[in-house]
Amino acid sequence: MRKFLIKIIIRLIVLVLIFSLASYIHVGMNKAEAQTEDIIRVGLPVPETGGASRWGTFCLRGALLAEQQINNTGGVLGKKIKIIKSDSQGIPDEAVSAAQRMIHRDKVHLFIAAMNSSETKALQPIVEEAKIPMVAAASSDPEITYRAGVGGFKWTFRNYPTEEIRTLVLLEYTIKEKGFSKFSMLAVDNDFGRSAVTFTQKYLPRFPNARFASFNFFSLKEVDFRPVLSKIKAAGSEVICLYTNTTETMQVMGRQMRELGLAGKVRIMGLGDITHPENIKALQEVLEGAIEVTLWQLQWDHPRSRQFVEDYNKMFSEAPNVLAYSYWETTHLVAQAIKNAKSLKNEDIYKALKAIKYESVMGTIYFDDHNQSNMPMVLLEVVNGKPVIKGTFWSRPDYPTKTKQ
Amino acid sequence: MNDLIIQQIANGIIIGFAYAMASVGLTMIFGVLRAINFAHGEYFMCGAFASWAVIHYFQLPYIISIPVSIIISAGIAVIISRIVMEPLVDAPFSTAVLATLGVYLILQNTTRLLFGGTYKFFSGGWLEMLTIMGVTIIEQRMVLIIITVAIFLFLEWMIRRTRIGKAMRAVAQNHEACIIVGINIELVTRFTFCLGVLLAALAGVLMSPIIVTIYPTMGEGMTFKAFAITVIGGMGNVRGTFLSAIFIGIVECFVAGFLGLQFREAVGFVALIIVLMWRPYGLFTLKGRF
To answer: Which of A78, A108, A253, B153 could bond A41 through an S-S bridge, CB–CB 3.0 to 4.6 Å?
Structure first.
């Protein structure tokens, strides 16, 4: 018995030594790799699978195009930029796992993340603990900004407009300029959609003549909108406020609006690639008069913007959307920040981001005390089958007096 | 309000036909194999992707893609039947569950590897408007309804009047007696499974123009919905499946229209729980068969 126990203990010790040695070698190799490679690593957790994957692909492609453009002109500080991607599936838990891997295994210098607001909020404490700058290039929940900068999460920046500004501008235009008063709302059932509903309800009292017949939520996988469209038709709504993460929602809903005789009788306003050329082409009678607020538009008349569209088309054989643009522009912005910092140390990159004045295709961008960039936005309306710019404006969030983490 | 109620009933019947078409294969497979096919929704997905691939890569019209995708699905069905389903006859229930879950994972991930994980726009289908009795629908829905009715009538005739149908009923009742009288259980199993898969694949092909976009995980929701519908109708009861599909479709539309679209998916499962507690052999089955 004694001999048996000794054998077992010796075998266990040997196993522990083998695993320890293997881990040491693995970590050592990674450290060596991190030290000897002349690469600036940018972490990018994006949904490559799941309901938000189509938009995640746009985000990734925008960043990859910028990576190629930056590296083709010599990189930054003599080093090449490398996008380290990981599939977050649009789920906060997966985004956190991906970020942890990128921090500890890949040793990223900063993050451009994430696409969904719920993912970004989950990543905020992670990057705060790791002291790695994160620039959100797609999430729209204002809570992210309330909690960033002086709000608590110092290492979080956002280069994307918040939902509250967008909803206010849409309401003002459709009610005051276009004279509509009867609305129904249809929002995707996630942080983005619920945030849109919250802020629509917040600003509604400013317009006493406007009425919302119903607030409806749907899952990203919903394919049958007939029941809720029938309800909207029976209520006599003039406008459907649509907030969705996917181009597909507009395509499915548009066909069903046609079936129920709502095409041309009910306007669409909101956000969800509503004014994307593919959607307008397929659903012209449904989308005539549709209104969308976006931070960039495909036909924006700026040489860098036109070049971006051309290069994106060449590289990926399709037109970019606003998310591709946002990730492309943000990648260039962080490259500029690293160049200004003249260093890859986290604290130096952070200070460079705080102080940056970056010339984007939409105007000069800088970050306020909540690390929110001052986003210029474009209001589009579909007129005779084409998206027409009806106005541009600069945003400033309405920060609450107390922020919470 | 009356107009809205009538419209929701019409909406429910329309979607109910789609559910019936997608669910009948599952109930047939259970009736004969006594195995719950957790990969059922993946055959629905395979049919959709096969049709999309024919249109997208070979630029063929939608009407040609229908028989081509059925042939492709038949090939998949024969392979899976020989390798997985036939050995499951008389196997423990848990073995069938694990085996079909494995098939589900393989089919879903193979599709993802071949076509990527992103949504694909389905450009085929008959999309002109039709108005029937005041209700406007696209032609594709009418085609789906007509084909569903035809298939259910065919299945009724086949099960009642043909040798293979009688053999299927015999295998569903008693395997040992079938062996004694000389019924080839393997052949009947293969036929039933392939028929069930083809019906699921056909449902995928016919529904794709309606749902507009397809993606590798689209079958998951369909498996759970079909499962709820077949249990409510009575496992192995083809008529019961049809009636419960229409019932679920109507209830879902009322819930979606009056309570909220986000509650729609819960309808099938709430109904399933109520039926299992009250009439576990199904609403439209007179008594338990197993």
So the answer is: A108
